[in-house]
Amino acid sequence: MTSTEATAAGSNSSGIWNLPNILTMLRIVLVPFFVWFLLADAPGLSSESGPWRWAAVAAFAVAIYTDKLDGDIARSRGLVTDFGKIADPIADKLLTGSALVMLSVLNELPWWITLVILVREWGITALRFFVIRYGVIPASRGGKLKTVVQTAAIFLYLLPLSAIAPWLVWVALAVMLVAVLITVWTGVEYVIEALKVRSQGLRRRAEEQQMAEEEHRAGDQHMAEEEHRPDTREGEA
Description:
Layout: H1 3-12, H2 19-40, H3 51-77, H4 82-105, H5 111-131, H6 141-158, H7 161-164, H8 168-228
Helix pairs in contact: 1-3, 2-3, 2-4, 4-5, 4-6, 5-8, 6-8
């Protein structure tokens, strides 16, 4: 079986208990532990940069690694499933969303940054579901770059930088601002692409409807001609 055939077979598989999906579910399970570690390190919502903070950093790092690992395994072994296509992006948004919200709750990240990123992420997800009746919005290179920069920015913010080197806090802020710019930019790109997909879908539907109507009229005309055609079989022996 070729790799293409294996991928197709995996895509059609309804089972969810394979390694990539288990890793995706593990990432979802890690989210509440990650949040609890951050809260345990911040009694009174004041971060202490202690061992629990490092546990949160480790949990985030493991979760991010499983994100890359499950995708690589799914593609290489032909284990891409419908469950994975749905659960994987949900797991990613739960992880990054919870990290952003918690950093803002702890007063380490401005709320406007969290809101801009979350509105963009969930808004584009909703937009994908809205236009799926017309077509699929493909993932762009900008979207992948956005994910990488967002992850790097969040990871830097999670590190107890003030305890390591105070000047690194400004590096984390700079990377986060770049992530915000890329997030907004790619969001606009996806909106434009969604409008194109919808327009093409509507045009395709109109063409298909027109073809169906033409075939229907041609069929009616053929039936009418058959009804008015003289019966040449009369008089035959």
